[in-house]
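Lecture notes, continued. The same structure-token format from the folding unit now serves as the input rather than the output. Read the line below as a description of shape only.
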């Protein structure tokens, strides 16, 4: 869903940066690259250790989650997403949604 139908990737960077702001840390591409492909909490632990932050993973995740929940409703379809779904529907091609997002995030993103 994310990155194919919905443009939400940038929201994670925004939320992480807003969570880092009080610590005067800059979330850069190098750090983002190291976090990619990892589970959410594992990637946050890597980030916290990298910046030597004085908070735990759960606290960081909780703060970040508040920013994400505010951003997700503004997610827009990626170019061609609607055309693709309409084409598949028109030709009776079965579809399903696959996501690594939690049920809560899925519901927020698709509301």
């Amino acid at each position: 869903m994310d990155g194919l139908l919905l443009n939400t990737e940038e929201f994670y960077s925004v939320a992480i940066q807003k969570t880092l702001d009080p610590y005067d840390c800059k979330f850069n591409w190098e750090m983002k690259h190291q976090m990619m492909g990892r589970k959410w909490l594992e990637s946050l632990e890597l980030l916290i250790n990298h910046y030597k932050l004085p908070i735990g993973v759960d606290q960081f995740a909780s703060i970040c989650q508040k920013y994400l929940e505010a951003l997700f409703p503004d997610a827009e379809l990626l170019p061609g997403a609607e055309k693709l779904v309409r084409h598949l529907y028109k030709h009776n091609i079965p579809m399903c949604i696959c996501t690594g997002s939690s049920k809560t995030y899925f519901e927020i993103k698709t509301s």
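Point for the exam: The two ends are 14 Å apart (CA to CA).
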